[in-house]
Design goal:
single chain, 279 residues, mainly alpha
Length: 279
């Protein structure tokens, strides 16, 4: 098993959520520290992924955060390249599966019944009357320990087939945006709509995460409603004929890491990657 500094208790998870304020940063923060691998800049930059990519209602921010943590630990153990990227993707598959077993979905909108289009009155109803905030705190307390176990199992598996070619569309994007090898591996598991699950585009999520890091370095803060990130979403939607989810853009879900690697090597989503890498 991969070395873990400490486990994660439910009370610890809920306390961290209360302190940090977003589900995405909470989970990546908890997991990074469990692996004794804190990455404050990268964790802060995950904030806009909460609410399913800037409150668009797609995959729960906890899954985005957990996937980034899996990638960070994969890089720590295996360095840069196809093996680390493959393990990050497979770990992310497990992370999505574990989440779906409990909730029968991974989308924030379907869990919370709100997104960026919801009225103020509906948000008040969900969070104050239905206890939406408490529900998310409890969810983090349940999910973070399970995510830690999922990552440990995947990164310790000795029987993983590794393609020789580039594995992740998201890693290619990170490289094109001038990011480090560590960042490329951290983001690898977002491929295929997070772990090949076909949800909201992982490359888009990664681009917003990267913009968050750059914003933090330039201004000292991460803007949850960063205009540059919204512009990136608009440019992305134009390039995909206004499709947001990977399975709709590609026309199918990927069956395996090898399947996705072959698609990427064949030029799949090349135009989208170029659009997201600009600026």
């Amino acid at each position: 098993m991969t070395k873990v500094k400490s486990g994660i208790s439910r009370m610890q998870a809920m306390g961290t959520f209360l302190k940090l304020g977003t589900c995405s940063e909470t989970v990546v923060n908890l997991l990074d520290r469990a692996f004794d691998n804190p990455l404050v800049l990268e964790e802060n930059a995950s904030q806009p992924l909460a609410g399913g990519i800037m409150q668009h209602g797609y995959q729960c921010g906890m899954i985005w955060g957990a996937s980034l943590a899996a990638g960070a630990q994969a890089y720590k153990l295996y360095g840069a390249g196809p093996e680390a990227e493959t393990r990050a993707i497979i770990a992310s598959q497990r992370l999505v599966e574990s989440f779906q077993v409990r909730h029968n979905t991974f989308n924030c909108l379907e869990i919370t019944d709100i997104d960026k289009s919801s009225s103020t009155m509906k948000m008040i109803f969900v969070f104050l009357i239905k206890g939406g905030t408490i529900g998310c705190f409890r969810m983090a307390g349940w999910y973070a320990p399970i995510a830690l176990n999922d990552i440990q199992i995947t990164l310790s598996d000795k029987n993983i087939e590794v393609p020789s070619s580039p594995v992740s569309c998201v890693s290619l994007l990170a490289q094109k945006m001038g990011m480090s090898d560590r960042h490329a591996v951290m983001a690898a598991g977002l491929a295929g709509g997070i772990g090949l699950s076909g949800g909201g585009c992982g490359a888009l999520g990664a681009a917003i995460w990267i913009l968050g890091m750059k914003s933090k370095e330039e201004t000292g803060k991460v803007d949850f409603k960063n205009p540059k990130a919204q512009d990136k979403i608009d440019e992305f939607l134009k390039s995909t004929n206004y499709k947001f989810e990977c399975s709709e853009i590609v026309g199918r879900k990927f069956g395996s890491v090898n399947d996705h690697a072959a698609y990427v090597c064949g030029g799949g989503c090349e135009e989208i990657i170029e659009v997201l890498a600009k600026g």
